[in-house]
Amino acid sequence: MKTTISQVAKHVGEEVTIGAWLANKRSSGKIAFLQLRDGTGFIQGVVVKAEVEEAVFQAAKNITQETSLYVTGTVAEDTRSPFGYELQVKGLEVIHESTDFPITPKEHGTEFLMDHRHLWLRSKKQHAVMKIRNEIIRSTYQFFNDHDYVKIDPPILTGSSAEGTTELFHTKYFDEEAYLSQSGQLYMEAAAMAFGKVFSFGPTFRAEKSKTRRHLIEFWMIEPEMAFVEHEESLEIQEQYVSFIAQSVLENCKLELDILERDTDKLAKIQAPFPRITYDEAIDLLKEKGFDDIEWGEDFGAPHETAIAESFDKPVFITHYPAEIKAFYMKPDPNRPDVVLCADLIAPEGYGEVIGGSQRIDDLALMEQRYQEHNLTGDAYQWYLELRKYGSVPHSGFGLGLERTVAWFAGVEHVRETIPFPRLLNRLYP
């Protein structure tokens, strides 16, 4: 019977055949242990010399790393293994022999591993990170589908930007100027006026010359937008969503979290409600912590976010930032127009901002004023202005950066390991 490693629990005591690759091995004179992977998981194959034909045992001893093969054997429970099962091998059939595989069990430098990213993805830890990424994506769709959101796909090529053009990739669109999208938000606002509650999930691009562990040039964002939803309700939706995907990872990625040696107690604390502080309170907190140079009106950098997060054992919302350092579309606080109805969600453990969101301006006259202040008078933004002209309503939205969230949940230091093929400041290969 042909099966996969992820399904062997259904076949205990049965003889099965698995198509796999050899990840690693060790052997003695009488027994060989084969670490096998098939994309769905990892399992140990045990080859006992006295129980197989001599040719099979010799093949097991001589097989090389990343050789592809069909392995036939009996599934047995193994309480010593985190996976819980092993394969008692009876037969091997080599499909393709791999020679001189460049990534060996020894230590390799980061640049070497990134140059061989197409092969590094096969390793157990990288596999675990990608499985956690996949679970976040799966549970994201589940959350929004269960709450009656409609998935809408905004364009990647755009004629305008969401937050200024300084960090956009510029290109030619035949005879017009165009950019790679840095956010689908403006288009999601249009979709929300048609469908009520929507979300997008897709790639975004930032031409930002940053080399920090939190930054990528190309990354993926989940961007919900909601009609008839104001600031406070939006915060509640955000914390419910983050709590849901965190608990889904805890429940469905136990083996992967174990492989990564993740402290799951910290993930278990990611449950709504989350604490909230205003930007004003955050400034005061930073000054108490020794950041004497921070002044009101300045944006927070990574050290500031980390220091703020250390004061809480859950993710924390920082709300009501100064209007002058936030995007043109954010709605001012009616009681205090110099700050806007917005929030950043700061993750603990130094992972920084994972969500940025706000209530959007719904007043036509105020948006026209913002257009003048930001020189957004061109035709490229006319359609966005019209959303306030024809049946405007209060609405809010937010964007969650997938890779930062994966890094946080997986306990990975650098976001370059949280996307299959990262695009960094000096890396476009492989």
Kindly describe this structure:
With 430 residues, the protein is α+β, with helices and mostly antiparallel strands. The protein folds into two domains: 5-96, OB fold (Dihydrolipoamide Acetyltransferase, E2P) (Beta Barrel), CATH 2.40.50; 117-417, Bira Bifunctional Protein, Domain 2 (BirA Bifunctional Protein, domain 2). The chain contains 13 helices and 18 strands. It has helices spanning 54-62, 110-115, 117-120, 124-146, 185-195, 231-252, 254-259, 264-268, 279-288, 302-309, 364-373, 382-386, 402-410, and strands spanning 15-27, 31-37, 42-48, 68-77, 85-96, 150-151, 157-158, 170-173, 176-180, 197-205, 218-227, 276-278, 316-319, 332-333, 336-340, 342-347, 352-359, 395-401. A hairpin with a 2-residue loop joins strand 14 and strand 15. The longest helix is centred in the N-terminal third of the chain and has 23 residues, at 124-146. The relative contact order is 0.11.
Keywords:
430 residues, 13 helices, 30% helix, 18 strands, NA-bd_OB-fold, elongated, transferase activity, 8-stranded mixed β-sheet, 5-stranded mixed barrel, alpha+beta, aminoacyl-trna synthetase, BirA Bifunctional Protein, domain 2
